[in-house]
TrEMBL record:
<dbReference type="Pfam" id="PF00004">
    <property type="entry name" value="AAA"/>
</dbReference>
<dbReference type="GO" id="GO:0006281">
    <property type="term" value="P:DNA repair"/>
</dbReference>
<dbReference type="Pfam" id="PF21960">
    <property type="entry name" value="RCF1-5-like_lid"/>
</dbReference>
<dbReference type="GO" id="GO:0006261">
    <property type="term" value="P:DNA-templated DNA replication"/>
</dbReference>
<dbReference type="InterPro" id="IPR008921">
    <property type="entry name" value="DNA_pol3_clamp-load_cplx_C"/>
</dbReference>
<dbReference type="InterPro" id="IPR003593">
    <property type="entry name" value="AAA+_ATPase"/>
</dbReference>
<keyword id="KW-0235">DNA replication</keyword>
<dbReference type="GO" id="GO:0005524">
    <property type="term" value="F:ATP binding"/>
</dbReference>
<dbReference type="InterPro" id="IPR013748">
    <property type="entry name" value="Rep_factorC_C"/>
</dbReference>
<dbReference type="GO" id="GO:0005634">
    <property type="term" value="C:nucleus"/>
</dbReference>
<dbReference type="InterPro" id="IPR047854">
    <property type="entry name" value="RFC_lid"/>
</dbReference>
<dbReference type="InterPro" id="IPR003959">
    <property type="entry name" value="ATPase_AAA_core"/>
</dbReference>
<dbReference type="Pfam" id="PF08542">
    <property type="entry name" value="Rep_fac_C"/>
</dbReference>
<dbReference type="InterPro" id="IPR050238">
    <property type="entry name" value="DNA_Rep/Repair_Clamp_Loader"/>
</dbReference>
<dbReference type="InterPro" id="IPR027417">
    <property type="entry name" value="P-loop_NTPase"/>
</dbReference>
<dbReference type="GO" id="GO:0003689">
    <property type="term" value="F:DNA clamp loader activity"/>
</dbReference>
<feature type="domain" description="AAA+ ATPase">
    <location>
        <begin position="46"/>
        <end position="174"/>
    </location>
</feature>
């Protein structure tokens, strides 16, 4: 169940997120302050228990794996590092079983400590976390733990306080672009500047997502452009949104409804994505302040309802109704 697999670099069919996973701490492109702190801990041989948290695709797993590679030579890696990830069970049995037995056995190769990496630790039950707390206390002498999660609030305070916490924030565009360019060059990809812009915009600081979009667009369409990126991710194009807004404001209700629904089905668009983009456009259309506020409030309500899993068709009607109401105001004003 526990995997301490090393990734063969040369495998051709590897997803790029694995193929281009940073191998050493120096390969990481962000969070320099965190990296230098950890380097310092390692070089002074006083690594504390660690807790990495923050949104996905920001380098948490890569950072600890790079640390582990720096700490342990190839042949001792498997006996010194226990890595539990999302595919492993998260109940109390894992803590009492594999984790406890790994932490409690003596180290053969080295006097130093062993390392337990608990990826996606926020999936652990409360019971498991409490049991883990006791294991951490008992074996601090010869084992270090690194907990990784997206949501800090899901880790019990007693565990949090035993670790040194590091927050991995989303990557900036200026950090992502050079890394993407490196991959583009290695893989010989034909990409336009607006294709690059689209990838960076859609991945909002998530490096994993940016690499996945790049790879899937390249595989599906060859050339990476704004259009192919948006189509590949099922995200509405700017021209789609312009059309939708145009229909909503200028066509009668049932025609607009039919046309939007048709476009939505044809391109496999999610109403949520449409709403996000329409909302941005509303800021740019020349509505009076009160009309704009009215629309924004209604769209926010729709977004809220969509998030709780309501019917897309009813919410689409509701969105059109919001625009219809605005039209009536504009007409009666004018
Ligand atoms: N800081 C970073 N520097 C370089 N590559 C990164 C960085 N963060 C993420 N990546 C890329 O995204 C992939 C996923 O990163 P990972 O460390 O698994 O993210 P997390 O564990 O935070 O979700 C990596 O394989 C790597 O290719
Ligand atoms: Mg991870």
């Amino acid at each position: 169940m526990a995997s301490t697999s090393k990734i063969p670099l040369q495998t051709r069919n590897l997803p790029w997120v694995e193929k281009y996973r940073p191998q050493t701490l120096d390969d990481l492109i962000s969070h320099q302050d965190i990296l230098s702190t950890i380097q310092k801990f390692i070089s002074e041989d006083r690594l504390p228990h660690l807790l990495f948290y923050g949104p996905p695709g920001t380098g948490k797993t890569s950072t600890i794996l790079a640390c582990a590679k720096q700490l342990y030579k190839n042949r001792e890696f498997n006996s010194m590092v226990l890595e539990l990830n999302a595919s492993d069970d998260r109940g109390i049995d894992v803590v009492r079983g594999p984790i406890l037995s790994f932490a409690s056995t003596r180290t053969i190769f080295k006097k130093g400590f062993k390392l337990v990496i608990l990826d996606e630790a926020d999936a652990m039950t409360q019971d498991a976390q409490n049991a883990l707390r006791r294991v951490i206390e008992k074996f601090t002498e010869n084992t270090r733990f690194c907990l990784i999660c997206n949501y800090l609030s899901k880790i019990i305070p007693a565990l949090q306080s035993r670790c040194t916490r590091f927050r991995f924030g989303p990557l900036s565009q200026s950090q992502m672009i050079p890394r993407l360019e490196h991959v583009i060059q290695q893989e010989n990809i034909d990409i336009t500047p607006d294709g690059m812009k689209a990838i960076v915009t859609l991945s909002v600081g998530d490096m994993r997502r940016s690499l996945n979009i790049l790879q899937s667009t390249h595989m599906a369409y060859g050339k990476v452009t704004e259009e192919t990126v948006y189509t590949c991710t099922g995200h509405p194009l700017r021209s789609d949104i312009a059309n939708i807004l145009d229909w909503a404001l200028n066509k009668d209700f049932s025609t607009a409804y039919k046309q939007i629904l048709q476009l939505k089905t044809l391109k496999g668009l999610a109403l949520h994505d449409i709403l996000t983009e329409v909302h941005l456009l509303i800021h740019r259309v020349d509505f009076s302040l009160s009309v704009r506020m009215d629309l924004l409030i209604k769209l926010a309500d729709i977004e809220y309802r969509l998030a709780s899993g309501t019917s897309e068709k009813i919410q689409l009607s509701s969105m059109l109704a919001a625009f219809q109401a605005v039209r009536d105001i504009v007409v009666s004003d004018g």
